[in-house]
Amino acid sequence: MNILQKDIEFNKFLINFIQLLNLEYENGSIILVEGKKDTQALSSLGFIGKTIEYCNNNISKIERKTKSYKKLIVLFDYDAEGRRLTSKILATFHRTSIIELKYRRNLSAASNGGIKRIEELSKLSLYPLLTENFI
Fold first, then answer.
1. For the whole model, what pTM was predicted?
2. What is the average pLDDT across 39-58?
3. Spatial distance between the Cα atoms of 31 and 22, rounded to a whole number of angstroms
4. Cystine design at 110: which of 13, 48, 75, 92 (Cβ 3.0–4.6 Å)?
Protein backbone atom coordinates (compact mmCIF):
# COMPACT_ATOMS: atom_id res chain seq x y z
CA MET A 1 0.00 0.00 0.00
CA ASN A 2 1.47 3.36 -0.97
CA ILE A 3 1.40 6.54 1.11
CA LEU A 4 -1.65 7.99 -0.68
CA GLN A 5 -3.63 4.80 -0.08
CA LYS A 6 -2.63 4.86 3.59
CA ASP A 7 -3.77 8.49 3.84
CA ILE A 8 -7.10 7.68 2.20
CA GLU A 9 -7.61 4.68 4.48
CA PHE A 10 -6.79 6.77 7.55
CA ASN A 11 -9.14 9.53 6.36
CA LYS A 12 -11.92 6.95 5.98
CA PHE A 13 -11.13 5.78 9.49
CA LEU A 14 -11.29 9.36 10.84
CA ILE A 15 -14.64 10.04 9.19
CA ASN A 16 -16.05 6.84 10.67
CA PHE A 17 -14.36 7.54 14.04
CA ILE A 18 -16.07 10.93 14.36
CA GLN A 19 -19.41 9.55 13.16
CA LEU A 20 -19.22 6.84 15.83
CA LEU A 21 -18.33 9.37 18.54
CA ASN A 22 -21.29 11.53 17.46
CA LEU A 23 -23.57 8.49 17.58
CA GLU A 24 -22.24 7.53 21.02
CA TYR A 25 -22.93 11.06 22.25
CA GLU A 26 -26.46 11.02 20.79
CA ASN A 27 -27.03 7.72 22.62
CA GLY A 28 -26.06 9.11 26.01
CA SER A 29 -22.26 8.87 26.22
CA ILE A 30 -19.82 11.59 27.19
CA ILE A 31 -16.24 11.99 25.97
CA LEU A 32 -13.51 12.64 28.54
CA VAL A 33 -10.41 14.37 27.15
CA GLU A 34 -7.35 15.86 28.80
CA GLY A 35 -7.83 19.48 27.78
CA LYS A 36 -9.31 22.23 25.64
CA LYS A 37 -7.06 21.55 22.63
CA ASP A 38 -8.35 17.98 22.52
CA THR A 39 -11.95 19.23 22.48
CA GLN A 40 -11.07 21.69 19.70
CA ALA A 41 -9.36 18.97 17.65
CA LEU A 42 -12.41 16.71 17.83
CA SER A 43 -14.69 19.62 16.90
CA SER A 44 -12.49 20.50 13.94
CA LEU A 45 -13.15 17.02 12.56
CA GLY A 46 -16.91 17.31 13.00
CA PHE A 47 -17.61 16.07 16.51
CA ILE A 48 -20.83 17.74 17.60
CA GLY A 49 -21.12 16.42 21.14
CA LYS A 50 -19.86 17.64 24.46
CA THR A 51 -16.66 16.73 26.20
CA ILE A 52 -15.47 16.92 29.75
CA GLU A 53 -11.95 18.26 30.06
CA TYR A 54 -9.93 16.59 32.78
CA CYS A 55 -7.57 19.56 33.22
CA ASN A 56 -10.42 21.84 34.31
CA ASN A 57 -11.91 19.43 36.82
CA ASN A 58 -10.99 17.32 39.79
CA ILE A 59 -12.22 13.74 40.15
CA SER A 60 -15.27 14.68 42.25
CA LYS A 61 -16.38 17.25 39.65
CA ILE A 62 -15.94 14.68 36.89
CA GLU A 63 -18.04 12.21 38.91
CA ARG A 64 -20.84 14.77 39.22
CA LYS A 65 -20.67 15.71 35.54
CA THR A 66 -20.71 12.11 34.30
CA LYS A 67 -23.55 10.80 36.49
CA SER A 68 -26.25 11.51 33.92
CA TYR A 69 -24.44 9.77 31.05
CA LYS A 70 -24.69 6.08 30.16
CA LYS A 71 -21.05 5.66 29.19
CA LEU A 72 -17.74 7.44 29.71
CA ILE A 73 -15.51 7.36 26.62
CA VAL A 74 -11.93 8.07 27.65
CA LEU A 75 -9.86 9.75 24.94
CA PHE A 76 -6.68 10.61 26.76
CA ASP A 77 -3.36 10.87 24.97
CA TYR A 78 -1.40 7.74 24.17
CA ASP A 79 1.62 8.76 26.25
CA ALA A 80 2.79 8.19 29.82
CA GLU A 81 0.57 10.93 31.28
CA GLY A 82 -2.44 9.68 29.31
CA ARG A 83 -1.88 6.14 30.56
CA ARG A 84 -1.54 7.41 34.14
CA LEU A 85 -4.77 9.41 33.90
CA THR A 86 -6.59 6.51 32.26
CA SER A 87 -5.55 4.22 35.13
CA LYS A 88 -6.78 6.82 37.60
CA ILE A 89 -10.15 7.08 35.86
CA LEU A 90 -10.49 3.30 35.67
CA ALA A 91 -9.71 2.94 39.37
CA THR A 92 -12.20 5.65 40.32
CA PHE A 93 -15.13 4.88 38.00
CA HIS A 94 -14.98 1.14 37.34
CA ARG A 95 -17.86 0.42 39.72
CA THR A 96 -20.12 3.34 38.86
CA SER A 97 -19.73 3.88 35.10
CA ILE A 98 -19.33 2.01 31.87
CA ILE A 99 -15.89 3.07 30.67
CA GLU A 100 -14.98 2.74 27.00
CA LEU A 101 -11.33 2.70 25.91
CA LYS A 102 -11.66 1.17 22.43
CA TYR A 103 -11.76 4.54 20.64
CA ARG A 104 -8.42 5.53 22.12
CA ARG A 105 -6.87 2.19 21.14
CA ASN A 106 -8.41 2.22 17.67
CA LEU A 107 -7.07 5.70 16.94
CA SER A 108 -3.57 4.68 17.92
CA ALA A 109 -3.76 1.47 15.87
CA ALA A 110 -5.22 3.17 12.76
CA SER A 111 -2.45 5.77 12.80
CA ASN A 112 0.21 3.10 13.37
CA GLY A 113 1.12 4.91 16.57
CA GLY A 114 1.53 8.19 14.67
CA ILE A 115 -1.18 9.95 16.65
CA LYS A 116 -0.08 10.03 20.26
CA ARG A 117 -1.97 13.14 21.37
CA ILE A 118 -5.63 13.84 20.62
CA GLU A 119 -4.85 17.48 19.86
CA GLU A 120 -2.74 16.30 16.87
CA LEU A 121 -6.00 15.54 15.10
CA SER A 122 -6.49 19.26 14.53
CA LYS A 123 -3.67 19.12 11.97
CA LEU A 124 -5.75 16.66 9.95
CA SER A 125 -9.02 18.56 9.96
CA LEU A 126 -8.99 19.36 6.23
CA TYR A 127 -8.04 15.92 4.99
CA PRO A 128 -11.37 14.18 5.55
CA LEU A 129 -13.15 17.05 3.81
CA LEU A 130 -10.78 16.91 0.85
CA THR A 131 -10.84 13.16 0.38
CA GLU A 132 -14.48 12.56 1.23
CA ASN A 133 -15.55 13.62 -2.27
CA PHE A 134 -13.08 11.25 -3.91
CA ILE A 135 -13.87 8.11 -1.92
1. 0.85
2. 91
3. 10
4. 13
